[in-house]
Every structure is written in C-alpha cells, then in structure tokens.
UniProtKB/TrEMBL annotation:
<dbReference type="InterPro" id="IPR018263">
    <property type="entry name" value="Ribosomal_eL32_CS"/>
</dbReference>
<keyword id="KW-0689">Ribosomal protein</keyword>
<dbReference type="InterPro" id="IPR001515">
    <property type="entry name" value="Ribosomal_eL32"/>
</dbReference>
<keyword id="KW-0687">Ribonucleoprotein</keyword>
<dbReference type="GO" id="GO:0003735">
    <property type="term" value="F:structural constituent of ribosome"/>
</dbReference>
<dbReference type="InterPro" id="IPR036351">
    <property type="entry name" value="Ribosomal_eL32_sf"/>
</dbReference>
<dbReference type="Pfam" id="PF01655">
    <property type="entry name" value="Ribosomal_L32e"/>
</dbReference>
<dbReference type="GO" id="GO:0022625">
    <property type="term" value="C:cytosolic large ribosomal subunit"/>
</dbReference>
<comment type="similarity">
    <text>Belongs to the eukaryotic ribosomal protein eL32 family.</text>
</comment>
<dbReference type="GO" id="GO:0006412">
    <property type="term" value="P:translation"/>
</dbReference>
<protein>
    <recommendedName>
        <fullName>60S ribosomal protein L32</fullName>
    </recommendedName>
</protein>
Length: 168
C-alpha cells in the first residue's frame, strides 16, 4: 500500500514526469522503479516465412478450403514444382532451432491457469513468460498478475479483461 501513497504524492508525480537527463542536472532523485525480467535470448528472431501455405485451387473453387493439403494428382503443376505456381511447404522453410517458438518480446510462451502455475516460472523468468488462459476469470487474472509481479515474471496478456478504475 506504500506505493499507492507515493503515486498520490504530487512531488513524486512531478519527479517522474521530468526526463532523466534534466533530473540529474537539477539534482532531483527519481523514486526507484523495479525492472522487469530481461529475456536471455540475444539472437535476432528471423522467421523464414510468415505467410501460410495455401491449398492449390482454393482461390478458384469455394468448396476447396485454404488450409494446406498436399497435391497428389499425376498432372499437378504444384506437385511437379513448375515455375510461377503455388509453393509447397518443405523443411527448408523451418525457423532457426535457437529462436523457434520465441515470441517477438524474446520469451517463450507458457499458458497459465492459476497462481500455482505462475510459481513454476519463478526460476525460468528470463526464458518463459506467462500467458493467462482464455477461460480464466477476472478475479483470478488479478491474482495471477499480482503474483507474477512479485516473482518478476512477465505476463504477455496481463492487461486482458482488467479495467482500471479512476477514483474522482
């Protein structure tokens, strides 16, 4: 609850609004802020292919869905890999093993349903980030986000279904 009092204090609000380089010149000390966990991954994440492979003739016929099916016809231009036709998926489109399954924020995703599962990430907070499952209630979401902040675990969808209330 100490944090709530500091936020309401006007001197703290003024100190936080001043840019760092100016606050050092003026001798204003900013209140310490707790840093979030920094991901261990330093390698740049490159996805070889982002677009999905579409099923041949899915644009021509409504009955043929877009999800990929391997063409097996004897005359299929796609199966025979003619120039200018739909590309077929193969092993060469795979992402780098070291960056595979990483999110753009540099963490791997770990789906969490309750507070106890957040505590599993305590020792792995620089590799994994918690993602709250879609069927978790708002009350439990608040508990999960609070516990994750205590354990310094990043929550990728921590703002979901949580509405901030302003007291006026």
């Amino acid at each position: 609850m100490v944090l709530d009092r500091r936020v309401n204090d006007p001197t703290v609000r003024i100190a936080e609004s001043i840019p760092t380089h100016l606050s050092e010149l003026c001798g204003i000390v900013k209140p310490p802020t707790r840093a979030m966990a920094v991901p261990l991954l330093t390698k740049k994440i490159i996805k070889k292919r982002v677009k999905k492979f579409k099923r041949p003739h899915s644009d021509r016929y409504h009955r043929v869905g877009e999800s990929w099916r391997r063409p097996k016809g004897i005359d299929s231009r796609v199966r025979r890999k003619f120039k200018g036709v739909t590309l077929m998926p193969n092993i060469g489109y795979g992402s780098d093993k070291k960056t595979c399954h990483y999110l753009p924020n540099g963490f791997k995703k770990f789906v969490v349903h309750n507070v106890k599962e957040v505590e599993l990430l305590m020792m792995h907070n620089r590799t994994y980030c918690a993602e709250i499952a879609h069927n978790v209630s708002t009350r439990k979401r608040k508990e999960i986000v609070e516990r994750a902040a205590q354990l310094d675990v990043v929550v990728s969808n921590g703002q979901g279904r949580l509405r901030s209330q302003e007291d006026e």
